[in-house]
Amino acid sequence: MSIEMPRGLPFAVDTFGPYTTTKRRKRHHFLTHAHKDHTVGISPSNIVVFPIYSTSLTISLLLQRHPQLDESFFVRIEIGQSVIVDDPDGEFKVTAFDANHCPGAVMFLFEGSFGNILHTGDCRLTLDCLHSLPEKYVGRRHGVSPKCCLDYIFLDCTFGKSSHSQRFPSKHSAIRQVINCIWNHPDAPVVYLACDMLGQEDVLLEVSRTFGSKIYVDKATNLECFRSLMVIVPEIVSEDPSSRFHIFSGFPKLYERTSAKLAEARSKLQSEPLIIRPSAQWYVCDDEDDWESGSIQKQRKVRFSEAVKDEFGLWHVCYSMHSSREELESAMQLLSPKWVVSTVPSCRAMELNYVKKNCFISRFSPDDPFWKLLDIDMEVSPVAEADTHPVALSCCLMSQEIILDSAKSKLVPVIESSSTKKKLLSLSPEKKLPVTLFGRARLSSQESDQLHERKVIHTQSVYTKTSPVLEKLNVQEVIESLQDDTKEETIEKESCTSFSTCTSEETCKDLSGDLRKLYRSMNAPVPRPLPSLMELMNARKRSRNHLSF
Length: 549
Prior knowledge:
single chain, globular, 7-stranded mixed β-sheet, 6-stranded mixed β-sheet
């Protein structure tokens, strides 16, 4: 399953769902591989997703699964090939790289005005896989940044959780474990291989080559696997059930069917079959089980170097098509991206140490492509001189403010934006107003003073030392604006006194002019001052006394 790309990008990767008023339609679509969770929504009726860029093998697998699709719906892009895509916002370049996941699976590298973006799809980022990327994006060793940093990586973090700290064996090592497990069980009349998933063909191919036997696939019960193998490795497929090697469906109810197969052999006084599952799922999920005994703990120490038998009689080998957490951390150190987003919806990228240490919003300048990815307009006011202090974007509602430098008595403009969309971006938590007994309508006088000090002055002028006339004029406007604010505040305080039934001086301070203007600037009604607790208690006593008479 993949996630939607940011709104500012003209393309989508592995997402082909329906579009709504709040879900912008993408102009270009890319498919990384043919697993079902990445092809949801591809159908002849959903014509807005075409054409789709993908590899020839992925397209062939998809057309075989969905015969109603037409080959003209797709654009072929092979591993190592680059394509220039025309777009109204400017053309961009796309290059496909091997994802080390399953046959036909690729990573897409996008290069354009939006920056440099790598979408890994589902992948296993080994060193060989990383070195296939352009040299300028890969550091030579850990701690040495590459010549050009990627702006964005959409990363497969399937096993990126902090609890998944195991070091997975390589695919080649895992296949050797499968071979060794078969050699160690020469009496097994039948060897069942739970390898019906796209991406496990290398295991089947090596078993067939080592033992010189084809592998039986039951078309009646596993037609999709049969069709896929006939496209990828047709030379190893057999329809003869007398073959020693059989494909065993991994889902559903794998453990129940394993126990049933072994029980059937025992009841017939026959040798037990050998059932092997090459997958990393059992190793990962095993960490969260509470029923483990001491013997299981001992097996865990050696299970990555050899096959392990569970309580149901099923043999497990850690064959992973996804990166381990250690491999993800190593890959991020070599690539040094500015920002990492998990393609797994649970946002597991946030658990990576690299992301915790290096991915901060403050790293992006106002003209960085990052803002374009999020479809946010960042218009920067021209900076006066080199001695202008840097501004940290740390406010949720970035208002147009002017900071007074007391040392030089000079007004310095802050980064501002004319777009209202910027106000929706939460860069850091905004300081919330305190909630009192009667809500935020009754603020303390200290809070009112803070609001008074943070007056917002709307001006588009730039104050420099080289333009004294403009500077003098603008300062005069600022003074007049402050005087007008003082007059309005005085009038509002007087109206507050006449309008309110409260006679205490503290209440008038709470309902200051700054607070009233704050509500009006948000188009919110100004709350009336509430009576104090003493007045409410006295009114209640008077009503009781009146009823007693």
